[in-house]
Amino acid sequence: MAEAKQQFESLSLEFNQQQNSLNELITARSQLETQFQENKIVLTEFESLNEDSKIYKLTGPILLPQDYSEAKMNVSKRIEFIEGEISRVETKISDEEKAMEATRQKLLAIRAQMA
């Protein structure tokens, strides 16, 4: 009985750690989605500009001129990178949810034994 209680406490702690990890991953996913949407808006703005429009990039406290095609390419690459990161985080979220479900099942089994 004492061993089951100790195992139950250990699994409860593991489950709480998994919940915290899942919450961090969900927060990261949300931040990536925000960045993705912001960059999509920038790309949409580029579509409405002429290729000879002046574009500036904020580098520290200074605005530096940037070539239209280079700026558009940078934003497109950033969007690709963010999409990859979103996919990676979603995979981690899925894996964490599966691990949490397995831990939850173990907790329920131990609780049933203790009853």
3D structure, described in words:
- GO terms for molecular function: protein-folding chaperone binding; tubulin binding; unfolded protein binding.
- Pfam families: Prefoldin_2.
- Belongs to the prefoldin subunit beta family.
- Residues 1-35, 79-113 form a coiled coil.
- This is Prefoldin subunit 6.
- The protein is mostly helical and 115 residues long.
- The protein has one domain (2-114): Orthogonal Bundle (Helix Hairpins), CATH 1.10.287.370.
- 82% of the residues lie in helices and 9% in strands.
- The chain contains two helices and two strands.
- A hairpin with a 2-residue loop joins strand 1 (55-59) and strand 2 (62-66).
- The longest helix is centred in the N-terminal third of the chain and has 47 residues, at 2-48.
- It is rod-shaped and about 75 Å long.
- The chain starts with a helix and ends with a helix.
Structural features:
single chain, 115 residues, mainly alpha, Helix Hairpins, 2 strands
Question: Layout of helices and strands, plus pairs?
Answer:
Blueprint: H1 2-48, E1 55-59, E2 62-66, H2 68-114
Antiparallel strand pairs: 1-2
Helix pairs in contact: 1-2
What is the structure about, briefly put?
This is Prefoldin subunit 6. This protein has 2 helices and 2 strands, in the order H-E-E-H. With 115 residues, the chain is mainly alpha-helical.
